[in-house]
Amino acid sequence: MPAQDFTPAEYETRLSRTRAEMARRGLSVLILADPSNMAWLTGYDGWSFYVPQAVIVHVRDGVLWWGRTMDMPGAAQTTWLSDDDLFDWPEAHVQHPDHHPFDHLAESLQSRGWTAGIGVEMDNYYYSAAAHRVLERALGAGALQDATGLVNWQRAVKSGAELALMRKAGQLTAAMHRVLRETARPGLPKHELVARVQAAGLTGVPGLAGDYPAIVPIAPSAREAAAAHLTWNDKPMQPGEATYFEISGCYQRYHCPVSRTLHLGPPPAEMKRAEEAVLQAVADALAAARPGATCEAVAACVYDALGRAGFEKTSRTGYSVGLSYPPDWGERSMSLRPGDTTELQENMCFHLMPGLWTPEWGLAITETFVVTPDGGQPLTDIPRGIAEIG
Amino acid sequence: MPAQDFTPAEYETRLSRTRAEMARRGLSVLILADPSNMAWLTGYDGWSFYVPQAVIVHVRDGVLWWGRTMDMPGAAQTTWLSDDDLFDWPEAHVQHPDHHPFDHLAESLQSRGWTAGIGVEMDNYYYSAAAHRVLERALGAGALQDATGLVNWQRAVKSGAELALMRKAGQLTAAMHRVLRETARPGLPKHELVARVQAAGLTGVPGLAGDYPAIVPIAPSAREAAAAHLTWNDKPMQPGEATYFEISGCYQRYHCPVSRTLHLGPPPAEMKRAEEAVLQAVADALAAARPGATCEAVAACVYDALGRAGFEKTSRTGYSVGLSYPPDWGERSMSLRPGDTTELQENMCFHLMPGLWTPEWGLAITETFVVTPDGGQPLTDIPRGIAEIG
């Protein structure tokens, strides 16, 4: 039974979209090592991606799960595939310097005659340079084609069922932020705060159990927050310091990341000014995020609003989100930034990220939104301004 | 300031060991994309590994951190490197289909004249096939040499300071298991139990704050536990069911994974028999794990003890552990399995994993131990038998 609440028809649609794109690119076979893509097409769920595994889609002839022997029962339990569609590589290949699970995959492809028009996800955490070299040596470089993002792009427009899961994830995110606001206080060691926030996301709300998010809480304070991706430490929270929390609930692997900034005591004038600019940036970007607008046009709203207030942001200001596994909850397809001319479509979802990092502090106020004819609609409801504590 | 409590002399030793091995292999430059290796050599810490980054070691001329602009302040805060040793790739390269951060790295290597004898970690989550192709095209395949595991192997024998951190992680693991035994009860939804266990690991014990482990709790119940790497769900725990928990505390990125099995009510006779065999396997393997014994000899103790009781285990039964980042807390060097003839040395650390998976249930009772002249010494103290609840 798949871990996720999707109908067979929904999986069929996903597969058809994927196969149509394969056909368009002349691919016969697609080897998907990205656990998010594996899950999206089959429902597969498990922390087994630290060893090689893949879902293999033939453009006509079947969908296979391939992985470690001890993970095959997990595939039987979580996917819609039949037992005949599951196959495993020999255990001796686990993290061995002299041979590789992909040796087995290459032989399996050869024995099926699947030796040309093979798409691989060349820029993915779970498809290593070594894996690729094995396939290249066995099948020839000409047999392989880069298909990074092929499935990620099919995931961009969410179904109704997916949106429902993302809104549920958003309820979990809101519960986490509630605990954050209610618990943060001067003197509380940050790791204790993070422990409670994370527990709130997992405990969830009645009827909604939390799963592990693809990124752990990012929670830097004061000058630490000049850096973008520090996690937490054991320092007590201090009056006069800002901490931003980039966190997400996760429901059946779907995410709804939202960042908020806490300030212990009244924020300094410059940070208040930045807050005002960021709130304007969020409002402007949401208003602009209608079907037909480009990613770069939405991004420009952010850069402009910040620029009018004298703040410069040089990093991308958002990206597509949805189903994901560590280490990234982004979908790695669209980015809200200059040069991304992708047109928004209804029911695409983005994490709008107008974070500002200065040498002295960081300020992050973000929203995950769905594209609607009326603009970007946040998928959860969390007070947006700097939370002033105490 | 490095996030970890190591002296400059300890980092010096690590670097010397690494450079000696580079010299032995004829490498001038080593590009380390594995965040564990980056942290071990420089202290770098941050959830930034979802984009390309590396520590670059020249065999004589310096150590550099390279990453995304917004993560450079994090490198300044967490490493012992000077600001001159940090450099960044242009933000426009973030997850872009047409160009890649490694384009920038290739140019940087060329501008330094570092164009031959370059080691890369070909079989690592954070060195993609695409990254390798960029370097190959820019520098020629002959310039690159596979150095997967080069640093991982230097990490195998732990220093006194590292062992102290692993024992602290073990205290966190023990706190997690204590909460597990005290909280599990029939009817408790499993995600609520996991939330409390995870919070216990983060909240820690007085003076010890928890960090995020490299693997989230693995916690399958009853027939789910036939699969090796399922995480959790919202089902209430049932009388008559076993659940095994593979969990680890994490202290300053060091781990001490320990699995235990809970049974709600008295376990069936066959599971008790399996427990007895597994306890014997653990005892025999620990007794054998002295300096000079081989990995396969220690593993044989496990297979033999299980075999004498009529249980067959075909998977590896342990691996080297220590400092790590997701998705694996193993060090990916030594494995306790047939064919691994590595000789144990004092102060190596292993997660001994004699897990048994049957079609009907799974049983996991594991220990993380340090090799001493008297045999393997567990790094924490947690009641070993099946915990019978209620």
Notes on the structure:
Two copies of one chain form a homodimer. The first copy, chain A, is an alpha/beta fold and 390 residues long. Chain A folds into two domains: 152 residues, Creatinase/prolidase N-terminal domain (Creatine Amidinohydrolase, Chain A, domain 1); 230 residues, Alpha-Beta Complex (Creatine Amidinohydrolase), CATH 3.90.230. Chain A contains ten helices and 16 strands. In chain A, helix 4 packs parallel to helix 5. Chain A is globular and about 70 Å long. Chain A starts with 7 loop residues before the first helix and ends with a strand. Chains A and B meet through helix 3, helix 5, helix 8 and strand 10 of A and helix 3, helix 5, helix 8 and strand 12 of B.
Can you tag this structure with a few keywords?
homodimer; 390 residues; Creatine Amidinohydrolase, Chain A, domain 1; Creatine Amidinohydrolase; 2 domains; 6-stranded mixed sheet; 10 helices
List the helices and strands and how they pair.
The structure is a homodimer of 390-residue chains.
Chain A: H1 8-24, E1 29-32, H2 35-42, E2 54-58, E3 63-68, H3 72-78, E4 86-89, H4 101-112, E5 118-120, H5 129-139, E6 144-146, H6 150-154, H7 160-183, H8 190-203, E7 242-251, E8 254-264, H9 269-288, H10 295-308, E9 318-321, E10 330-335, E11 349-352, E12 356-357, E13 362-363, E14 367-372, E15 375-378, E16 387-389
Parallel strand pairs in A: 1-5, 3-4, 5-6, 8-16
Antiparallel strand pairs in A: 1-2, 2-3, 7-8, 9-10, 9-11, 11-14, 12-13, 14-15
